[in-house]
Amino acid sequence: MDLFLITKPYAQTGVQKVGGVTEKPPISEMLKQIVVNPPLIGLMLVELGRYLGRFIIFGMAFYYFKYIINDVPGLALFMTGLTIAQIVAAAVAAPIAKKFGEKYTYITAMAILVVGLLVVWAMPLSAGTFKMVMFIAYLGYGLPDSLNVAMYSATVDYGEWKTGKNIRGFVMSLISFPIKAAVFVRSIIIAAVLASVGYVADMAATPELITGIKNGFALYPAIIMIIGMTLMFGMYSLTPKRLREIQNELKQRKTEA
Fold this sequence. Notes:
Blueprint: H1 2-7, E1 16-18, E2 21-23, H2 27-35, H3 38-68, H4 75-100, H5 102-122, H6 127-142, H7 148-163, H8 168-173, H9 177-196, H10 207-235, H11 240-256
Antiparallel strand pairs: 1-2
Helix pairs in contact: 3-7, 3-9, 3-10, 4-5, 4-6, 5-6, 5-10, 7-11, 9-10
């Protein structure tokens, strides 16, 4: 719902109003804004990895609670705890990003989540310890929630600097694309994980099933997020200093025009 409120003014097609007249960039210009904009591509890929990892974790949580820690009644409280951790992290993200920059805050936050997932995957944990590790790790998921709008906005400036055209509406509408793609892909991955261990409803726990569930809940999301972080690190070059340089150059161009 929050994402809808943020992106609603941009619509799904990237239509913008200029001087009271509705203008829609041609498709060729929309595609160009993506192709020539590595920071935008890197940001979309890491967001895809973040959302996909989250949706897989949520989809596998029931099986983890049932077969790994034997605590199905605790699942609802666990989900509530993750939501609280996400809200707390989002609330403190702005001052952290102001000091260290959005890119490095984002990557550090994701690294916290990945480390937590790998601990869950590699170590036998009690139900209580597992929940505490995940609550702390999920702070890493929540921090980027308050950063992505500003980071997408920065890629708008980069695209304008690169092409001479500002189509902010289209670029900002791409915020929802990683979510939609992740929703589609997560079902395929979860189904594949369960099928690979021969899962049937209410089956007895087997070593293969336990390993498969731990892989699906923790290892695979961690790998997906690591890939996204790596791509973002290489492609999202917009540090605060670089962004200021681009914005100053854009102002100078407009002054000279």
